[in-house]
Amino acid sequence: MSSHKNYLDCGRIEVTNTPTITQTAEFVVTSFKDVNDIIIPFFTKYPLQSIKKLDFEDFCKCAELMKNKAHLTEQGIKNLRIIKAKMNRSRSNENL
User: Fold this and answer.
1) What's the predicted TM-score (pTM) here?
2) Phi and psi dihedrals of 16, rounded to 5?
3) Where do the domains of the chain lie?
4) What is d(CA 95, CA 46) in angstroms, rounded to the nearest whole number?
5) N or C: which end of the chain has fewer CB within 10 A?
């Protein structure tokens, strides 16, 4: 994880200890500028080769809405929620 952070020169590593899981680590990027200028271009250049590619495409749609300040409107929030509801484990088999 540290090598990812160092290579991309953004984000942080969050390590969690829980009673049920020995230890987890997450690479977290919260800066919209870093997401837009580093993370999205990286995964556009080196695309994911799994079902996560569809989640990344939805993530990019959300980032574009936010870039255009659509998230500041009621309709924009609704659009973001619709996209989010179809991502990750909620993705139906018809989108595969």
Assistant:
1) 0.80
2) -125, 135
3) 49-96
4) 21
5) C
